[in-house]
Amino acid sequence: MAKFMNNNITSSKTSKIYKIFDNIGVWTFAVFFGLLFATAILSSAYIDDILSQKVLYKWDFPLIACGAFLLVWLLFYLVSFLYTKKKTDIGKIFFVITLVWIFFASVVIAFFGMTAPAADAMTVYTMAQNAASGDFSFVTGSDSYLSYYPQQIGMVTFLILPLKILNLIHFPYPAFHALKIMFGMIACGLVAFQYFTLKLLFKNNDKVSFICFVYLVLAGLNLPFILYTSFIYGEIPSSFMISGAIFFLVRIMLREKIGNNHRIFSKAVLPNYIGLIVFSSAAVFLRKNCLVFIIALSIVLFVETFRAKKVRYLGLMAVTIICSCLVLPLTIKIYENKVHDKTYTGVTATSYIAMGMQEADRGPGWYNGFNFLTYEESGFDSEKANEISKAAISERLNYFKENPSYAFDFYLKKYLSQWSDGTYASRQATWATLSERSSFFVSLYEGKVGDMFIIYSDLYQTIIYLGVFLFFIKTILNERKTASSFAFFILIGAIYIFGGFLFHMLWEANSRYIFPYSIFLVPYAAVGLCNYKTSYK
To answer: Do 281 and 293 meet the contact criterion of CB atoms below 8 Å apart?
Structure first.
């Protein structure tokens, strides 16, 4: 498998444990992404009423998705044919074009979409504004937002410096407009990290330019991703950090696989270790749910230890876990020392799980206020909140046992509402405004453009799922042909996505929460949609 990498990179002998993890991983993901593709081509979840945000479900006509896939395949085949004839390095050219397009589109959305932060995003933005002005009164007190969600301190801290700069230069418009431009730049950085990661993996492949071209096309056509650049929250910056962490992980693993055993403190090795630790910890700092990625990273480092027989991978894993788990508590401690007061522990994890088992107006397992109200009514006592939540969980489990058909329908809809919504709630997340927006964007949120956006996003998601599914099917078939060893670390993105699937089937549901995972589907899809020989030669 993975013959797209240099033959010198693949190891001729791997331990049985390594092979077991290899086979389990590849087969599990082939089934998982096959399920995602099957449900996406047969059905879709969508929200047409922005006000109620109620999730609706419908059956799809598979031939439409098949037609869209054929058009995409013909386009890529034509480009591949021209590339073979011309030998033009379209990857480098299109890399610049794609980044310019994403940044340009983010600027257009920022100034014509006129999106303003709302709900949690507005609260985080306001706290950052206060901190930038030297007011830290928001940190403590029972009426403080951080009393409920202390993990948001990371995103608040991230926004303070740019807001201070905007205050110093007396930016004449609401500061969040400038932040949206910054998020557009971060989105470009995210795409660049994924592009250069593919370049590393395909370094010695004569088709590397075409493979990267396919990725850039898919990244540039990811309209929900571009729309999310106007959402001032943790999704885009944390995903940028994870993309960076994966880039450094690949650099570490490739160096080991080519037999470059420089000492860990050498200039060639140490920056990659530091980069992996810093970017991974920063991801959690910006969005606590990125602990799912830390688990995925730990699995990869643990498994790769068996192949490389290097204890330092376990050390790297331990340091990354420690830093990621301490970064938010230490930040909170700094703020507590600053205001000379203590913060509350926040809404409990158990209450999120309980809420994820309950009905809600928008969809099964979506937010219904249970976690917030339980913590508030318990007097900010975590133990009492957990007792109430455990009782609620027990009650729902008993109901599910007594009504198995209802339980199946509940979790089926919870799954579809998150993973079959091709827009990933991007319209809902960027709907709020404090001023008039252009007629096009009014129609995007309330009219026919919005309907077309839903249809487009649904087809795009189906093609991405198909590409990822093909990646793992081709990987399995190629392994049988060559009996070669798979580079397990390439599964890091898939493990992260699968972990997110398990997490949000248990946790609070929302298609917006799935958006960060969807970003890491694109590189796999790009490889899967390429010609078999092109991908694995």
So the answer is: no
